[in-house]
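batch_manifest entry 22 of 60
target: DUF2189 domain-containing protein
source organism: Pseudoalteromonas maricaloris
requested by: lab member K.T.
priority: normal
notes from requester: please return tokens only, no post-processing; we will run our own comparison against the previous entry in this batch. if the run fails, retry once and flag.
--- input ---
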Amino acid sequence: MPATHSINKDNEFARCFECNKVPTMAPFHWLALAFKDIANAPLLSLVYGLIFTLIPAFIMWLVYQSGTHLVILPAAVAFALIGPAFAAGLYDVAWELEKGHKPTLSHSLKSMFRNPAGEWGFAVLLMVIMIVWMRLAALIHALYPNVPNPTFEQLSAFLALGSIVGGILLVCVFAISAFTPQIMMERRVDIMTAVISSMHAVKENVGAMVVWCGILVFMVMLGFATGTAGFIVIMPLLAYASWHGYIAVIKTKVPRHYE
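--- output ---
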């Protein structure tokens, strides 16, 4: 679904790319296109799917072996640092298919270094937010009633504050990460430009972004419900759909045709 495209280049640093407004149910169209991408590049999708499946499986194994949840934080921080790099490889596969090229593993691996400063900066940003999130969770846990079998009334303050803080952080993380990795990989811009553009696009497409966020949560829960085996398909599917969402939402100088 091509649209008129233009980019505001008044400022070279921390500028904001213009965006299109998409229908509320557009994310389901992105998923349909993602299924086509998997069908057109099944082997590469399987390779990256296995990588993304092994990571959460390893975290769950660490928790089981150690008998403590304390290993989740360092493992999750490590995932935040390497996850965006592998996601860039999947974006490259979808991008190559969009251009009518045959995607290859070597080409997708090279894409991880198209904007190393931006990609690592974004990974560090996610890591910092994650650490803050964990620390806030620890502080909020102090409100948990120190009594056996607490009632709902006793739990109300703990649940209310935890839900509010968690919801705010979730919205912030989603807004800054919805299109930031795709922008940085294709356009090689600074991290602030990518983050500001992503937040602006989310704000202008609240309906579609709520649907997309719901899809992400459901698919991740489905992945864990299958003992992480479902991530073999789920992660490539979501990455390809994210790329098509980026094409549909963020304006470019040249019309994009990806149907």
